[in-house]
Design a protein that fits this description.
4 strands
């Protein structure tokens, strides 16, 4: 009887821990629902602009539900969107279209993407996790 009780307690503890882990993962995924990473660029792209795109895509592998969107500000079909974000050239944003929240990460991106790629990825990841 004592063995059965111990086994039941262990099973209950295992299930409790498993459910809690799944709830935390679900909460993390829900938090990222609706968020987008948007990069604007001009027709003629520099090394830093290309690095921002590459590193953003690499970082987003940890956030499969968050899309990366790339827009050319020189293309007339993107004019209204570029105006909404006040983008005239290379720029990087976090955006939640459900609530209209925008976070401009352009200065951060330019200061880290070319020469500090790990800092860029770590910083973008942190910004995404804190963006609500």
């Amino acid at each position: 009887m004592k063995n059965l009780f111990s086994t039941l307690v262990m099973l209950f503890a295992f299930l409790l821990i498993s459910c809690e882990g799944n709830a935390q993962q679900t909460a993390k995924n829900k938090k990222s629902d609706g968020i987008q990473v948007i990069q604007f660029h001009s027709t003629h792209r520099c090394i830093t602009c290309n690095a921002i795109e590459k590193l953003s895509k690499e970082t987003l592998k940890d956030f499969p539900k968050i899309p990366f969107k790339l827009y050319n500000v020189d293309d007339a079909k993107n004019e209204k969107l570029a105006e909404q974000f006040q983008a005239t050239g290379t720029s990087l944003f976090l955006y939640n279209p459900k609530i209209g929240k925008i976070k401009n990460l352009t200065d951060f991106a330019f200061s880290t993407a070319k020469n500090k790629p790990e800092e860029f990825k770590k910083g973008l990841k942190k910004e995404i996790q804190n963006f609500q």
